[in-house]
Inverse folding.
């Protein structure tokens, strides 16, 4: 028999997901690798012993509130209850990165994926505000399902164990909840989603724009209205077809994946769109993927299918997992139909089944906090201030917006949030200023440069500006105008400043 004809008949049976599993596991390996790389490079200055919000003090406060080791571990599950230090954080993150590369290279089993899931959960649960994003719990839920997609021991790219069909359906259920949640939170949130005007502002006011964002911002209004209507169609209509017949599933998968690719191109949303693609891959079976993947992978999938063996144990585990997910889905489903829908919320300590959403509100203007320092001993009207430049967020109007996703500069994102609030709501910014006043190496590693390389500044202040994209053809990327003061000039000799830091237990 012609191998191509045999493979076509084999995959035409409809329940063949050898290539699907291969692609899902490779992409989860990639996302884990990015996530652990971010942790390896940013954990210490953010939550290390001398970081902006030290994790050891966070865990100590949890233990003080709950009063026992067991209650603390159940409330905040993390391996760091067994010990946390800068050395441990660094080794932990780099080890997770190395394991992720193994999965990305094509080798994964349930044990390896369970280790990665437990390790990343441990980081998220001590990450505090720096890890308070929806894609963190989304990666945990996606990573948890991935554990059950492959055999316990056999780590080959195409093991003899068949991909569990029930787990494939659970991935589709995850993708469905992600999109429906995102669609409903928009319709229930900002009116501009209902009158199709949100994208007039989104590209300019999103957390970290990229160079293309400027061109999209100046697109005609009819184009933005069409985009918004298309967004509603993709998020609220298309996901239902992921449970349909094969052709409908394939079309839905193409639309859902391509929608995420467009979002990747139009901004810097960390690894959100990459991890969101993973459950959509479950819309495709091997009858589709055999036409888009290399022939050598298709041949290996054929060989694995020929040698496959049914596993009663794997089927039993998949059924038990399905029952668990159905039970844990009750609260997220009730949230979706509720008039008070929560966005990016977990209902269980392990973040196994969550509710999601994105951009329920869209800003009409873009405020930006600019931190400035001076080495003048006395502030006068002639004082020269030098700006601190961050790696990704807008600062110098002449600097081209960054292309950084799927990587995420976590402090840049938090400053985007802080610009829409007050320093009292983001007290870590005071600790950040204190670190800059000492030229703290860890804190400076989060920035693009240090305008005071020889000696720390005497004063730091924060000014608030309104940023707008410069018109196409302008030599600058941004136009900005001052709004006012966000933080007054602070020095290490400021008694009130030191009192506040002492009260927050941040005075090193």
């Amino acid at each position: 028999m012609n191998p191509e004809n045999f493979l076509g008949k084999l995959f035409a049976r409809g329940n063949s997901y050898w290539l699907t599993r291969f692609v899902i596991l490779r992409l989860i390996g990639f996302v884990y690798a990015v996530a652990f790389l971010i942790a390896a490079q940013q954990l210490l200055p953010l939550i290390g012993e001398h970081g902006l919000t030290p994790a050891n003090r966070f865990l100590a406060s949890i233990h003080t509130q709950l009063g026992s080791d067991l209650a603390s571990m159940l409330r905040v599950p993390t391996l760091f209850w067994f010990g946390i230090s800068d050395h441990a954080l660094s080794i932990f993150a780099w080890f997770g990165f190395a394991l992720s590369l193994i999965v990305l290279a094509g080798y994964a089993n349930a044990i390896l994926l369970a280790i990665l899931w437990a390790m990343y959960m441990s980081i998220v649960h001590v990450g505090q505000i720096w890890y308070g994003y929806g894609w963190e719990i989304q990666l945990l839920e996606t990573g948890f399902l991935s554990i059950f997609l492959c055999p316990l021991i056999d780590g080959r790219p195409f093991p003899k164990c068949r991909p569990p069909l029930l787990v494939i359906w659970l991935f589709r259920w995850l993708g469905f909840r992600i999109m429906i949640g995102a669609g409903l939170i928009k319709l229930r949130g900002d009116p501009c989603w209902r009158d199709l005007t949100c994208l007039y502002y989104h590209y300019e006011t999103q957390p970290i724009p990229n160079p293309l964002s400027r061109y999209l911002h100046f697109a005609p209004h009819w184009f933005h209205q069409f985009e918004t209507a298309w967004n509603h169609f993709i998020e609220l209509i298309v996901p239902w077809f992921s449970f349909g017949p094969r052709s409908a599933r394939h079309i839905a998968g193409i639309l859902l994946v391509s929608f995420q690719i467009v979002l990747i191109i139009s901004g810097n949303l960390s690894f959100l769109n990459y991890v969101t693609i993973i459950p959509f891959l479950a819309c495709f079976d091997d009858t589709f993927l055999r036409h888009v993947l290399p022939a050598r992978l298709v041949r290996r999938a054929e060989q694995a299918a020929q040698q496959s063996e049914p596993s009663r144990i794997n089927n039993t585990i998949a059924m038990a997992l399905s029952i668990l997910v159905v039970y844990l889905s009750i609260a997220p489903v009730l949230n979706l139909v509720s008039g008070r829908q929560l966005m990016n919320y977990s209902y269980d300590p392990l973040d196994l089944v969550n509710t999601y959403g994105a951009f329920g509100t869209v800003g009409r203007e873009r405020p930006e906090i600019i931190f400035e320092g001076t080495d003048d001993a006395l502030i006068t009207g002639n004082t020269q201030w030098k700006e601190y430049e961050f790696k990704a967020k807008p600062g110098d109007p002449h600097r081209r917006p960054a292309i950084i996703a799927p990587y995420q500069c976590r402090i840049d994102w938090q400053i985007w949030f802080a610009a829409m609030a007050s320093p009292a709501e983001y007290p870590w910014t005071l600790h950040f200023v204190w670190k800059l006043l000492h030229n703290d190496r860890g804190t400076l590693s989060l920035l693009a440069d240090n305008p005071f390389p020889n000696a720390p500044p005497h004063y730091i202040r924060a000014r608030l500006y309104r940023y707008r994209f410069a018109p196409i053809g302008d030599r600058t990327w941004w136009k900005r105008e001052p709004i006012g003061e966000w933080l007054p000039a602070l020095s290490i000799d400021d008694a009130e400043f030191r009192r506040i830091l002492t009260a927050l237990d941040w005075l090193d």
